[in-house]
């Protein structure tokens, strides 16, 4: 008998344990179904009221008519309230959507600005380092122009020196350093520093004739301008002007011959 009571108790304990059910989205579907059923029920109630209203009108039952009209007015008022609520929620949704778009745009601008600032910092740091190295490059080039090889030992030293110079230039190139173009190019005050002007029959006015010191760019940043000599003109004689001068000279010669 005691064992029977124990078995009964164990059975009750097991049956009292909560049962876990997996929904997997069924609740959302049920909610949608319940909403549709509620709408159908409200429509059925409204239709029933309208039918009752017709019957009351036919029977001329004023009390029932007033009661149904009050119910219909209550439904209509509730409908207006719901429409206002929907409009308000739609407006709130539109406002929040616009705010989200603005926040997204602000974040994108912040990200781009931060990236530009980072690149500027890197470029400035590189620029400062390279600017300090330009003086070393100038010394290399001055020494190169002054070296005169006379012995085999001096030639070996010169070759070693040239190898170091070449490697130094390649390192600057790998950092993005390039020479400012000069001879034969139009003078640009943003890139060139004119230290002399000279008449030239070969180049038009404003064209760079000679470079005295190299200028360098790091990307779009000017590390230092080139020191140059600039043409003051008049440049090469134009074919049309030459023909006019020749014709003028020929005419003058003919006039002198005729007068003589």
Automatic annotation (TrEMBL):
Region annotated Disordered, chain positions: 1-43, 229-260
SUPFAM superfamilies, sorted: Coiled-coil domain of nucleotide exchange factor GrpE, Head domain of nucleotide exchange factor GrpE
Keywords (A to Z) from UniProt: Chaperone, Coiled coil, Cytoplasm, Mitochondrion, Stress response
Compartment list: Cytoplasm; Mitochondrion matrix
One of the GO BP terms on file: protein folding
InterPro entries linked to this entry: GrpE, GrpE_CC, GrpE_head
GO cellular component: chloroplast; mitochondrial matrix
Keyword Mitochondrion: yes
Listed GO MF terms: adenyl-nucleotide exchange factor activity; protein homodimerization activity; protein-folding chaperone binding; unfolded protein binding
Bias kind Low complexity: ranges: 16-35
Coiled-coil residues: 58-92
Subunit structure: Homodimer.
Function in brief: Essential component of the PAM complex, a complex required for the translocation of transit peptide-containing proteins from the inner membrane into the mitochondrial matrix in an ATP-dependent manner.
Protein family membership: Belongs to the GrpE family.
Protein name as annotated: GrpE protein homolog
Organism of provenance: Noccaea caerulescens (Alpine penny-cress)
């Amino acid at each position: 008998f005691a064992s029977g009571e124990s078995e009964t108790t164990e059975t009750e304990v097991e049956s009292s344990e909560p049962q876990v059910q997996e929904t997997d989205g069924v609740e959302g579907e049920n909610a949608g179904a319940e909403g549709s059923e509620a709408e159908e029920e409200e429509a059925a109630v409204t239709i029933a009221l309208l039918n009752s209203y017709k019957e009351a009108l036919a029977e001329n039952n004023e009390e029932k008519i007033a009661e149904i009209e009050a119910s219909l007015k209550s439904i209509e008022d509730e409908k207006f309230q719901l429409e206002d609520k929907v409009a308000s929620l739609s407006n709130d949704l539109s406002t929040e959507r616009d705010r989200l778009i603005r926040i997204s745009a602000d974040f994108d601008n912040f990200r781009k600005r931060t990236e530009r600032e980072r690149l500027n910092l890197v470029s400035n740091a590189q620029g400062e380092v390279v600017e300090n190295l330009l003086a070393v490059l100038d010394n290399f080039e001055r020494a190169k122009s002054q070296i005169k090889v006379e012995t085999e030992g001096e030639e070996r030293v010169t070759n070693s020196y040239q190898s170091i110079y070449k490697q130094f230039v390649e390192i600057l190139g790998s950092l993005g350093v390039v020479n400012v173009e000069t001879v034969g190019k139009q003078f640009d005050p943003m890139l060139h520093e004119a230290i002399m002007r000279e008449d030239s029959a070969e180049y038009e006015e404003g064209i760079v004739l000679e470079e005295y010191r190299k200028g360098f760019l790091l990307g779009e940043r000017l590390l230092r301008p080139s020191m140059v000599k600039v043409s003051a003109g008049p440049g090469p004689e134009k074919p049309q002007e030459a023909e006019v001068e020749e014709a003028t000279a020929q005419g003058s010669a003919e006039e002198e011959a005729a007068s003589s």
